[in-house]
Amino acid sequence: MPVRRAKQPEAAEPESPVVLHKNLTVLTTTDPLLLREIKADKKIGPHLIAELSETTVILAPGSEEAVTRQLLKAGHLPQIRKGTP
Questions:
Q1: Is 67 exposed, middle or buried, given 0-12, 13-18 or 19+ CB atoms closer than 10 A?
Q2: CA-to-CA distance for 76 and 65, rounded, in angstroms?
Q3: Which pLDDT tens digit goes with each residue over 46-59?
Q4: For residues 75 and 85, what is the distance between their CA atoms, to the nearest angstrom?
Q5: What three-state secondary structure class fits 27?
Q6: pLDDT, tens digit, for every residue of 55-78?
Q7: Where do the DSSP E strands lie in 8-63?
Q8: Alpha carbon separation from 32 to 36, 57, 62, 79, 82 (Å, rounded)
């Protein structure tokens, strides 16, 4: 299942050259082939909403636990890093 690339949000104000994203869950891999495998997983793929690079995708809000469970079931051992407030 192909992952949609992130679209620029429509804004009433002129767009700033700097964008700060809060509460964003990002999944990264060290290998593009591994990310392709993860994206193809029927239970993980629907939770991936945007591709930032060949090794980085954005998860849908609230899907962190479901994706983590599926990664573990698939034999992956993801590192979970909490962002700083």
A1: buried
A2: 14
A3: 999 999 999 999 99
A4: 31
A5: strand
A6: 999 999 999 999 999 999 999 999
A7: 26-28, 48-53, 56-59
A8: 6, 11, 24, 17, 23
pTM score of the predicted model: 0.72
Give me the residues paired with residue 50 across strands.
58
Structure tokens at 14: 């002129």
The position carrying tokens 């469970």 is 69
The 10s digit of each residue's pLDDT in 4-25 is 666 655 555 677 788 777 889 9
Residues 6+ apart with CB under 8 A from 85: none
Question: What is the C-alpha R_g of the chain?
Answer: 14
Our CA angle for 8, 53, 6, nearest 5°, is: 20
